[in-house]
Amino acid sequence: MTKKEHFFRILILGFLTALGPFSIDMYLPGFPAIANDLHTTVNEVALSLSSFFVGLAAGQLLYGPMLDRFGRKNPLYIGLVLYIIASLGCMAAHSIQALILLRLVQAIGSCAAAVASVAMVRDLFPVEENAKVFSLLMLVVGASPMIAPTVGGYITAAYGWQLVFAILAAIAVLILLAVIFKLPETYKPDTSLSLKPGPILGNFLKVLKEPQFSTYAFTGAVAFSGLFAYVAGSPLVFMDIFHLDGKIYGWIFAGLSIGFIGCSQVNNLAMRFYKSEQIVRVALFIQVISGLLFVTAAVNGWLGLVGTVVFIFIFLCCLGFINSNAAALSLAPFSKNAGSASALMGCSQLAIGAFTSFAVGAFDSHTNIPLAAIMAASSVIALVILLIGRRQIKNQVEVSDEAGMAMH
C-alpha cells in the first residue's frame, strides 16, 4: 500500500465513520425551528434523536453478519442508498411522528457505514496499528462536532432546517461514489456463514464469551454513553437554561469537541510509552473524579455556563483517550468474526447511548443536574466493569503485540 493509498483509505473510512455523527450533530441547532414548524415541543423533537440511536443500534446487528457473509462493500452500498432516501424523506416531513420514523430508517442506513468502517480497519491494517488508525479516524470524526452544529445553525437560520437533511443526502452520495471508485473490497465473502437467526445468534454469543471483548467493549460503551447524554441534553442546557441562540450554541459545541478530538490524537503519542489498557484505566479514573465533582457542583448550584463547559470539556478529553483504545482492545482477539465483533461493539455502544439520551430528555428539569448525574454515572459504571472484567482475561491480546493475535 502506497502512502497515497494509505491516506485516501483512512480518509474514506473516516468519512464513513463520521456519517452517523454528522447526522446527529448537524440538526441539533434546528430543534426549536423544527418544533415550531411541526407544532410540537423541543423535548418531542429530541425523540427523533433517540430514534436515530435506536436505529443505529438495531442496524449494527443487521449489518454485522451481512458484512461477514457478503463482503464489506455490497452491504455498504445498500446502507448508503437507504440513508440517502431517508434523508430526503426527513427533508419533506410534515409531522414529528414522520420525522421520528424517518430518522429511524436513516440511522439503519448510516450504521452500515459505521460497522463497515470498523471492520475494514481490521481488514486493511495490522493489529498493532489498529489503535493508531482509530485515532486517525477520530481526527476526521472530530470534524463533525466541530463543524456540523456550527454550519447547521447558520443553515437553519438562513434557509430552514430542511436544507440540513438535503446536505446530508448530498454528503452520502459523495461518500458512496468514493467507496465505489476508491475503496477496495477488503474481505472475501464467507459463504459458510448462515444468515439464519440461530447461527447468527450463536456467532454473537461466541464473540461475547471472549472476556477481552466483553470487558473492553462494555467499558467503552458505557463510558461513551456519557457523550450521548451530552449530545441529547446540550440543546436544553445551553439554549433553554442558559438562553443561548443556535449559532452561539454551535460554536460552544464545536469548541467542546476540541477536547475529544485533540486527546484522541494525543493518544497516538501516549501509546509510544504506555499500553492501551493502562491509558484506558488512567483516563477512566480521571473521568470518574471529574464526573463526581460535576454532579456535586450541579446539585449545590455552584455552576454557571463556564463551570458547566469546563466539566464537560474534561469529560470529553478523557473520552478521547478511552474510545480508541477500548475499541482496539475489543477487536484485537478477532480475525474471522471481525464484522460480528464490530457490530456487537457498536450495538452495545448505541443501545446504551440511546437509553442515556432518552433518560436526559425524560427529566423535566430546568437545571443541568440530570446531565451531570448521567455523565458521572456512566464513568463510574464503566470503571467498575473494567476493574471486574480485567480479572477474567487470562491471555490479553495487546494492540501493540506484533506477534499477531488470537484466531477465533
From TrEMBL:
Q: Which family does it belong to?
A: Belongs to the major facilitator superfamily. Bcr/CmlA family.
One GO biological process this protein is involved in is: xenobiotic detoxification by transmembrane export across the plasma membrane
Kindly list the GO molecular function terms attached to this UniProt entry: sodium:proton antiporter activity; xenobiotic transmembrane transporter activity
List, alphabetically, the Pfam families matched.
MFS_1 (PF07690)
Q: Which GO terms describe its cellular component?
A: plasma membrane
Transmembrane stretches, by residue range?
7-24, 44-63, 75-94, 100-121, 133-155, 161-181, 213-233, 248-270, 282-303, 309-331, 343-363, 369-388
Spell out the NCBIfam families in the cross-references. Answer: efflux_Bcr_CflA
Q: What is the lineage of its organism?
A: Bacteria, Pseudomonadati, Bacteroidota, Sphingobacteriia, Sphingobacteriales
Domain of life where this protein originates: Bacteria
Membrane association type:
Multi-pass membrane protein
Give the matching SUPFAM superfamilies: MFS general substrate transporter
Q: Major facilitator superfamily (MFS) profile domain: from which residue to which, for each copy?
A: 6-394
The identity of this protein, by name, is Drug resistance transporter, Bcr/CflA subfamily
- Known CDD domains for this protein? MFS_MdfA_MDR_like
